[in-house]
Amino acid sequence: MKTPSPIDLLFDGMDNLSPGDDSLSLYVLRSLPQHRFEVAVDAGCGAGRQTLVLASELQTPIQAVDSYQPFLNRLKRRASEKGVAHLVCTHCMDMKDIPNAFPNIDLLWAEGAAYNIGFANALTTWVKVIRRNGFAVVSELCWLREEVPDLVREFFRFDYPGMQSVTENIAIAEEAGYKIFNTYTLPQEAWVKDYYAVLEPHAKSLVNHFDVDVRNFAIETLKEIEIFKISENSYGYVFFVLQRQD
User: Fold this and answer.
1) Model-level pTM greater than 0.90?
2) What's the sign of the alpha-carbon dihedral 195, 198, 201, 203?
3) Which residues does 42 contact at the CB level (< 8 Å), separation at least 6?
4) CA angle 15, 229, 5 (to 5 degrees)
5) Rounded to whole angstroms, how far apart are CA atoms 6 and 27?
6) What pLDDT is stored for residue 2 in this prediction?
7) What is Dmax (Cα atoms) for the chain?
């Protein structure tokens, strides 16, 4: 039998693989000026919490893209349980290859995933295949204020050195060819409920695992959670609702 990976063990049974909330995803989706999209892509969908929100609300096929097949398998099971399997099409591929698979996108959605290929790189890569006046809704980890506790800044100096402020990311989006339609900041409670509140006990249960990779992954996760607890709201996920320009 294949030994479960650190990712599988840590996120076992979890629907949220990053901070997020169905009600906020739905709120942001409903803020768009149109509600019918022929081609909708969920980039870096993970286990598909937000994919199911998109499918249920839009009632149109969602092209769910992730590079980790076990997450896609979980998404397919949950889509079937929720009666929207016919609206969820999974694709095991890298987000940077989306333009090769989907040349005309009306809505590109990416929650907490763009950083995997770099926020600026993701926007530049995807804008080429988003239809004129089409939308990209991308959430990105941002500095929310200038005053940051030293331990927090030091943690992200190694963990995400490319993190920018909201203003800097708006400039990046505009440079890539988007108009800023709106921004929404994920509330602090969306980091805890159904995410850290579940993830923390998972991680604690794995700190003495026989596999050193699993132990290290669990320890690093607990460190991340501790940094969040002392962050003083200095960083957070921000939804950038973007509309492609000519």
Assistant:
1) yes
2) negative
3) 48, 50, 51, 54, 62, 63, 64, 65, 109, 110
4) 40
5) 33
6) 62
7) 55
Residue 93 tokens read as 């591929």
The span from the CA of 20 to the CA of 238, in Å, is 11
Cα–Cα distances (Å) from 3 to 6, 132, 214, in that order, read: 9, 46, 11
> Which single residue is written with the structure tokens 């690093």?
220
Which pLDDT score, from 0 to 100, does residue 34 have? 86
Partner residues linked to 243 by β-bridges: 135, 179
Residue whose entry in the numeric block shows the structure tokens 């006990």: 201
Give the pLDDT confidence score for residue 157 in this predicted structure: 95
Our CA dihedral for 232, 45, 84, 76, rounded to 10 degrees, sits at -120
Q: Report helix, strand or coil for 104.
A: coil
Contact 107, 37 (CB under 8 A): yes
Q: At what angle do helices 69-81 and 49-58 cross, to 10 degrees?
A: 40
Count CB atoms within 10 A of the CB of residue 41: 27
Which stretch of DSSP H or E encloses residue 177? none
pLDDT, mean of each 10-residue run, the chain (246 residues): 80 89 95 93 96 97 96 96 97 96 97 94 96 96 97 95 96 97 95 94 94 95 97 97 91
Residues in the chain: 246
Q: What is the dihedral of CA 158, 96, 237, 28, to 10 degrees?
A: 180
How does strand 130-143 pair with strand 105-111?
parallel
| DSSP states along 134-154 | EEEEEEEEEE--S---HHHHH
CA distance 65 to 48: 9
